[in-house]
Amino acid sequence: MSDSIRRELRLLKGYAVLITMLLGMLSIAAFKQQAPEKVKFTEIDVERINIVEPDGKLRLVISNRPRSTGPIYKGKPFGYPGGGRPGLIFFNDEGTENGGLTFTGRQREDGTYSSSVGMSFDQFNQDETLTLRYSDENGRKATGITIAERAPVDIYDLIQERDSINQMPDGPAKTAALEKWAAPRSGVPLRAGRVYLGRDPARSAVLNLSDPQGRPRLRLRVDSIGQASVEFLDAQGAVTARLPQS
Q1: Closest CA to 140 of 203, 189, 196
Q2: Alpha-helical regions (H) of 87-233
Q3: Which carries the bigger pLDDT value, residue 161 or residue 16?
Q4: In CA terms, which of 81, 119, 217, 221 is 20 to 30 Å from 210?
Q5: CA-to-CA distance for 94 and 191, rounded, in angstroms?
Q6: How many of the other CB atoms lie within 10 Å of CB of 28?
Q7: Who's near 71: CB < 8 A, 6+ residues apart?
Q8: In angstroms, rounded to a whole number, what is the distance separating the alpha carbons of residues 140 and 202?
Q9: For residue 9, what are the CA distances in angstroms to 18, 20, 21?
Q10: pLDDT at 168
Q11: In 3D, which of 118, 45, 120, 134 has the Cα closest to residue 90?
């Protein structure tokens, strides 16, 4: 075998080794790109974070006010646009909003202020059924927990029906349609507050228990000067008995 042939064989072997190494490096790089990565940050500034399921459905949105989401039903926006709810919004397995945590607070140019915090949990395919709220309008404060019942009506259909009525020209027909829309469904109100426990704007500690129509029937109160009372009310809201009687 001549020296020239030996040199050519050595070059071919070198090319084969080099190509094998390059293919191996490319395979490793491709695997690393496909594999999920865990990234650690010490601090980040961000306007919105979407937590999504593998299929892309929203699970949680954390955002500032301008980038906040409006209501979403099974991945479809409805009701009103986003941009007004800074905080956290939760979504169920189907990508439908089912609660959240929102907060506001600012002082106006005239020195007055307003502040609010609200955490809510929604009935399935409906609206708030359990809420924890604080509001303060320049010193007029209220803080409380509310438990409500809602008619078993799909919220998306309900809002679509309302929006369709709102497109009607103003007049008796539109008014009647809205009254019918807001009426109970199969005897169940669209919303009925059943329990309220909190501190009202009159600085009273209050527990209100209401009937299935949302009418207060039993009220326990300790007022702003420390006087305690228990009141029983009829369906029209009139006090039928009170302790103490004076």
Answers
A1: 203
A2: 155-166, 172-182
A3: 161
A4: 119
A5: 23
A6: 10
A7: 77, 78, 79, 80, 97, 155, 159
A8: 8
A9: 14, 17, 19
A10: 94
A11: 120
Give me the percent of the chain exceeding a pLDDT of 70: 85
- How deeply is 33 buried, as exposed, middle or buried, from its count of CB atoms within 10 A (0-12, 13-18, 19+)? exposed
Is the confidence at residue 108, as pLDDT, over 60?
yes
Residue pair 196/207 in contact by the 8 Å Cβ criterion: yes
CA distance 99 to 21: 54
| Res 19: pLDDT | 62
Q: For residue 79, give the 3-state DSSP assignment.
A: coil
Q: How confident is the model at residue 101 (pLDDT cuts 50, 70, 90)?
A: very high
**Mean pLDDT throughout 155-169?**
95
